[in-house]
Each structure stands twice: as structure tokens, then as C-alpha cells.
Write a structure and sequence with these properties.
76% of the residues lie in helices and 0% in strands. The chain has one domain: Ferritin, CATH 1.20.1260. By secondary structure, the protein is mainly alpha-helical. It has five helices and no strands. The structure holds hydroxy diiron-OXO moiety. Hydroxy diiron-OXO moiety (OFO) binds next to helix 1, helix 2, helix 3 and helix 4. The site of hydroxy diiron-OXO moiety (OFO) has 10 residues, from helix 1, helix 2, helix 3 and helix 4.
Length: 165
């Protein structure tokens, strides 16, 4: 059985994962209308992953005697000046999510809720991978700089960059 405090903290995380999914969906749309087909497919896949993260939390909360709350969400940004700016936003967003997961883990520890603490370890590992993927992409973008040919190849090859679910 979840304590009210943990239930509220998990619900906050559910909302963050939902907003992450919407943010990446919006990035996918911007990339798609900007002619960046590969990048848009990558962002659609990221959006799906975040929805899966949200659903995993929802199931956990409901199975442990809590009630997952589906709420309104903050509208994401709809356009970017450059694709680099978009990937910087993705990287920063993942760091924000990691901090939020860490905070959540801390709460479960201080409340001695070891079941939830254990459940959250999957998210801790996931965030390490997602931050690493975002960082790898940013490093590649910095190498490309303003080179249009480089962007063409990057857009074609981004699917090869390991994305975990
Ligand atoms: Fe990448 O944020 Fe979910 O966990």
C-alpha cells in the first residue's frame, strides 16, 4: 500500500512523463514539417517511449492501492530556430527528468518504501541511457556545425543511434 505522500510524488512523475511524451511529439512534428524525416521518426519513437514510462507508473500506482491521476498538461513549445536548439532542449529535459526521478527515489528511501524504491531502479537506469543518447547526439551535432551535407547524413543516420525503451 502506498503512503499518500508517495502516491502524490508518483502522480507528479506520471504527469512529467506525459509532458515529456507531448514535448517529443511536438518536436517530431516540427522536424517533420521542416523536412527532417529521420529526426522526426526518432522523436516520434521518443514520444512513444515516454508514454510507456508513464503507463508503467500508472499501472504501479493502481496496483499498489493508489489512484493514478490523469491531468491536464502544460503545452509544449511548437517550434525551434534550429535542430541543434531542439536537441539541446531534449538533453536539458532529460536532465530535468533524471533530477525528478532522483528526488522520487530519495522520498521512497526516507519513507522506507523499499518496494517503490526497487520499482524506481528501472527509471534510474533508463535515465542514464537516455542522457547518454542525448549527449551522443549533441556531440555529433556540434561536429556537424552548419554543414548542410552533414545535416543530411545526420538526418539519414539518426535511426542507427541506439534508443532504448
Ligand atoms: Fe526520458 O523520461 Fe521517461 O523516464
Amino acid at each position: 500500500m502506498l503512503s499518500k505522500n508517495i502516491e502524490a510524488a508518483l502522480n507528479k512523475q506520471i504527469r512529467i512523463e506525459a509532458e515529456s511524451s507531448q514535448t517529443y511529439l511536438s518536436m517530431a512534428c516540427w522536424a517533420e514539417v521542416s523536412g527532417l524525416e529521420g529526426i522526426s521518426q526518432f522523436m516520434y519513437a521518443q514520444s512513444d517511449e515516454e508514454r510507456a514510462h508513464m503507463l508503467k507508473l500508472i499501472k504501479y500506482v493502481n496496483e499498489r492501492g493508489g489512484h493514478a491521476q490523469i491531468t491536464d498538461l502544460k503545452a509544449p513549445k511548437t517550434s525551434y530556430t534550429t535542430f541543434k536548439e531542439m536537441f539541446e532542449a531534449l538533453y536539458e529535459h532529460e536532465i530535468f527528468v533524471s533530477n525528478s526521478i532522483n528526488e522520487l527515489v530519495h522520498i521512497t528511501f526516507s519513507e522506507k518504501d523499499y518496494a517503490t524504491h526497487n520499482f524506481l531502479q528501472w527509471y534510474v537506469s533508463e535515465q542514464i541511457e537516455e542522457e547518454a543518447t542525448a549527449k551522443t547526439i549533441l556531440d555529433k551535432i556540434n561536429l556537424i556545425g552548419d554543414d548542410k551535407g552533414g545535416l543530411y547524413l545526420f538526418d539519414r543516420d539518426i535511426q542507427q543511434i541506439t534508443v532504448t525503451s
